[in-house]
């Protein structure tokens, strides 16, 4: 029996995907796997039984990835599961920034007691005039699951779309409309586009990637949208540009003190993935990932170990999973030991990712439980499982 602990409210559509033999448990200490959304885990002590954490969402800054790796705990996320929800909110953000919708709606509320409000509105609406997005240039920074959807949708809305992503994958390239112009220099996006939207992960390399130099290149009436992470934009440089009327508008999904008093901002309370559909999609994907790992040892969409899959387990023999440090000799030592004890390796797949690596080994027969302790004790080995 596999025991799963939910640290947040996880959509029932996801937990209903747990197969027979799985149990949802109340206590973390009993868990083999964790399903989590936003709960902070950096100070959490994990039980020895825990082998996997699945984040029902894309961001994993609430999870101690390196510590999990050191404990042989594989951490998954669900990239793309909430992409459509975020895409729709980005499009909404562009429209909010282009038309006087927010201020106009507030005017109506403020003048609700005016018996002649319809007539008054005809005079007042000039203050809320805007511009159309059709024919305008949109720059998309980051062309992953969300960025590609935004770019394609903007093409359909008649925008002239420019994409910047030096690390674009082959899969992302296939998803992208042929009408998106590929740009190799971030400064060109900043200089040329009327709207600029950011869709890159938050990491050391991307922190403050839109800073004073990039903002200075932007048009005075440009709209900057950030629905990825607040740390991607230099807040001080942004506020200075907004207050000096050197940037048209900033639309963000992250309410932080540094920007709340700035001019021409539209700040939302992190609504990007806050739809019923997105929560369901993330929950289903997280459950599928964790079940495949528990039952077959396969890793898909991990953020601290490489992607490794040998498909379903064979009806005969046994599968061995090895999470280990990315140092020489770990897997060769294990396969040599298997051969010395008369076990034939039928299939093996091993990959590394930074400091850590993972291997799946199918053998033709069954191996004794005493071998588990011996393999686990080898230098560099973090965790071994026999399936």
Explain this structure to me?
The protein has 387 residues and is of the alpha/beta class. It has 3 domains: 1-82 and 274-304, Rossmann fold (3-Layer(aba) Sandwich); 84-97 and 130-267, Rossmann fold, CATH 3.40.50.720; 308-387, ACT domain (Alpha-Beta Plaits, 2-Layer Sandwich). 33% of the residues lie in helices and 20% in strands. The chain has a 7-stranded parallel β-sheet with strand order 8-7-6-9-10-11-12, with helices on both faces. A 5-stranded parallel β-sheet has the order 2-1-3-4-5. α1 (12-15) links the parallel β1 (2-6) and β2. The protein is elongated and about 90 Å long. The chain starts with a strand and ends with a strand.
What would a concise description of this structure say?
The protein is an alpha/beta fold. 33% of the residues lie in helices and 20% in strands.
């Amino acid at each position: 029996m596999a025991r799963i602990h939910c640290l947040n409210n996880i959509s029932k559509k996801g937990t209903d995907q747990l197969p027979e033999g799985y149990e949802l448990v109340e206590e973390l200490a009993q868990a083999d796997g964790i399903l989590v959304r936003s709960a902070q885990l950096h100070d959490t002590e994990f039980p020895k039984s825990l082998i996997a954490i699945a984040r029902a969402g894309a961001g994993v800054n609430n999870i101690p990835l390196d510590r999990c790796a050191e404990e042989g705990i594989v951490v998954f996320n669900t990239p793309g599961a909430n992409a459509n929800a975020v895409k729709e909110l980005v499009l909404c953000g562009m429209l909010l920034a282009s038309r006087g919708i927010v201020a106009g709606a507030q005017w109506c509320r403020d003048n609700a007691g005016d018996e002649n409000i319809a007539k008054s509105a005809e005079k007042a609406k000039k203050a809320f005039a805007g511009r159309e997005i059709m024919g305008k240039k949109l720059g998309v920074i980051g062309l992953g699951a969300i960025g590609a959807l935004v770019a394609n949708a903007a093409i359909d809305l008649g925008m002239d779309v420019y994409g910047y992503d030096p690390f674009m994958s082959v899969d992302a390239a296939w998803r992208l409309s042929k009408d998106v112009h590929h740009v190799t220099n971030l400064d060109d996006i900043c200089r040329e586009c009327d709207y600029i939207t950011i869709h890159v992960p938050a990491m050391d390399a991307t922190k403050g990637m839109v800073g004073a130099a990039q903002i200075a290149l932007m048009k005075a009436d440009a709209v900057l949208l950030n629905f990825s992470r607040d740390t991607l934009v230099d807040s001080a440089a942004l506020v200075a540009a907004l207050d000096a009327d050197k940037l048209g508008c900033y639309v963000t999904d992250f309410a932080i003190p540094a920007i709340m008093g700035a001019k021409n901002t539209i700040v939302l309370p992190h609504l990007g993935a806050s739809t019923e559909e997105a929560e369901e999609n993330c929950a289903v994907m997280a459950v599928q990932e964790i079940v495949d790992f528990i039952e077959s040892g396969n890793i898909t969409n991990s953020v601290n170990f490489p992607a490794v899959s040998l498909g379903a387990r064979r009806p005969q023999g046994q599968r061995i999973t090895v999470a280990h440090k990315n140092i020489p000799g770990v897997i060769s030592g294990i396969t040599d030991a298997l051969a010395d004890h008369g076990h034939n390796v039928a299939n093996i797949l091993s990959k590394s990712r930074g400091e850590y690596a993972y291997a799946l080994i199918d053998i033709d027969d069954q191996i004794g439980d005493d071998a588990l302790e011996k393999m686990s004790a080898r230098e560099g080995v973090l965790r071994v499982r026999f399936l």
